[in-house]
Design brief:
Strand content: 25-35%
Order of helices and strands: EHEHHHEEE
Shape: globular
Largest sheet: 5 strands, mixed
Radius of gyration: 14 Å
Distance between the termini: 16 Å
Number of helices: 4
Mean pLDDT: 89
Structural class: alpha+beta
Helix content: 25-40%
Number of strands: 5
């Protein structure tokens, strides 16, 4: 995470049930989690970054359980876009990959498909 391209979400991920450190790429965060106050003030729907992050992590946990030990899995989440006027959730695809960290410990990264 030293390159600042990743957001450490391990603290919340642990509460959802992940046992390894979890990070999200900045692009995935911006698309699925980021929720600026200016958008919150304009929208009728109630959204928070914490709630949106939990949505991503629950979907990722379900995908992990269904992937039967694979190191990479693709999953979808529905989210309201943070920009624009639409309040209807739209589907987006994310990729979760587990691999060795800096000291060869298992780490999980959630990203957009084009980032892999």
């Amino acid at each position: 995470m030293a390159d600042r391209m990743l957001v450490d979400i391990s603290e919340v991920a642990t509460k959802v049930g992940f046992r390894a450190p979890v990070a999200m790429t900045k692009n995935a965060w911006a698309d699925c989690v980021w929720w600026p106050q200016t958008t919150a003030n304009k929208m009728v729907s109630i959204q928070t970054e914490e709630g949106r992050l939990c949505d991503v992590l629950y979907a990722a946990m379900l995908a992990a359980k269904l992937s039967e030990g694979m190191s990479r899995t693709v999953f979808d989440v529905y989210r309201v876009q943070a920009t624009g006027k639409r309040v209807k959730p739209r589907r987006t695809t994310l990729v979760m990959q587990i691999g060795p960290g800096d000291i060869k410990e298992p780490v999980i990264t959630i990203s957009m498909p084009e980032e892999i």
